[in-house]
Amino acid sequence: MFRCAACGAFNRVPEPPPPGAPTCGRCQRPLDLSGAPQEVDGDGLHRAMASSPVPVLLDLWAPWCGPCRVAGPILDEVGRANPGKMLVLKLNTEAHPRAASELNVRGIPTFIVYAGGREVARRSGVLPRPDLERWVASATQGSAAGATA
Description:
The chain has 149 residues and is of the alpha/beta class. The protein folds into 2 domains: 1-33, no CATH class; 34-144, 3-Layer(aba) Sandwich (Glutaredoxin), CATH 3.40.30. The chain has helices at residues 42-51, 66-81, 97-102, 129-144, and strands at 2-3, 10-11, 38-39, 56-61, 87-92, 110-115, 118-124. The strands form 2 sheets. A 5-stranded mixed β-sheet has the order 3-5-4-6-7, with helices on both faces.
């Protein structure tokens, strides 16, 4: 499943993708199949959390935050390693302070995993890629079993 960065719709894309650039079924714009993190605002985040058929890894960050800049390439690698299997979203807390406040974010970077429309795990601070991937996998496996991480 891939989220259209333009309209937020989720789109099924067969494996392997058909020839040519797949487009969004709703807005007809080209879909990014790379798995790269997508910037989102508060409204887009709420829609994605509620309707994503795949786990969502949310990065709450700000441009002035040094650890956030360190985490950026790690999240990019994680997203690109899991295209269509996980959605990586980035919420700039400086540009969208209300959304960050609604999520009760006290420090950045903060990472939240959502599965089935609900928060299943949260942590602050930068992790090396293998540790981040293990944490996300543990959180999403626990949510599948009905547990909260």
